[in-house]
Amino acid sequence: MSDVAWTLGPLLIGGSIALVLSGMVAVQCIVFYRLYPNEIRTRVVAVLAIWILDILHSTFIVISLFNYLVDFFGDRSRIDHIPWSIGLTIVATAITTLIVHWYYCQKIFKSSNRNWWIVAPIVLLAFLRLFAASVSTTEMIRLQRYSAFTEKYPGWVFTTGLSLSAGVDIIITCWLCYFLRRMRGRTASTTMAHVVDVLTLYTLENGLLTGLTVTASLICWVAMPNNLVFLGLHFVIGKLYANSFLISLNTRKALRDMRLSKNEWDPQVPVFSPDDLSAPHFLSSSRSPYGLPAVSMTVRPRKSRVPLPIPRPDIDCGALSP
């Protein structure tokens, strides 16, 4: 690795994009705590964990860029060196990915009527991805050279981790879209059908965004192991997962309000895997692909008050005549 343009360049670009996305993660976390002060504890803890992991991930990126661009400035022999902070970005991304995958597995589990045969393989693959990333981090810190890390071992471990991440993304997206389409076939409401169509579109976009980024990093790793383009893309992966998770939580209130309003659905509203279309008790519900109620209106007649006739006294018109 002697070409600076294809080693330090991708790290600088990928790190800069990752730090911008990290700012978006911070904003999304603040919005979550303001919108949902009484949220269930597990989600509060999950959001806090995502935020802490994102801060640590960004810190590791800054440290690695400082090492390459300042400490090793002008020393081409250090381009092949792997700082310890680079290795820790791998496992931080893997833990963030596991939390997000676990969140979507819960949605699939609820929508499939608690079918473990569907969810268990996804959970297993997600944990295997974390294990592969942990091994990759350990080997990076131990070897400290990219030329040694790209050998058959541990190179295939890193390849396996990226492949598992992309595979889990595809499986989750397919199952969510399947349950959405099944729900659409059961609804008789035109408005609700349009809502499901929009949700399906954004579910595909959300899953493809992370999946394609992971796939691009995997392709660059396999096709170009002698440069760091794959690592620049890998910097961004964790940020995309974190934003995907937080946006899916923060859009619930807007979706619920929009669903209950009389206004037409606005397809320009960004919806990323919302899990709450809940409504007041007078709405009948069925399970949605996100494990929460998909509402259909039950119209109740309004009880209007009919004024009772007021008795009028009999008036003798003759008495009023002059």
Automatic annotation (TrEMBL):
Source organism, top-level taxon: Eukaryota
Pfam families: DUF6534 (PF20152)
Keyword Transmembrane helix: yes
Keyword Transmembrane helix tagged: yes
Sequence intervals crossing the membrane: 12-33, 45-70, 82-104, 116-136, 156-180, 201-224, 230-249
Domain DUF6534: residue ranges: 165-253
Keywords associated with the record: Membrane, Transmembrane, Transmembrane helix
PANTHER family in the cross-refs: CHROMOSOME 1, WHOLE GENOME SHOTGUN SEQUENCE (PTHR40465), DUF6534 DOMAIN-CONTAINING PROTEIN (PTHR40465:SF1)
Record protein name field: DUF6534 domain-containing protein
Phylogenetic classification of the source organism: Eukaryota, Fungi, Dikarya, Basidiomycota, Agaricomycotina
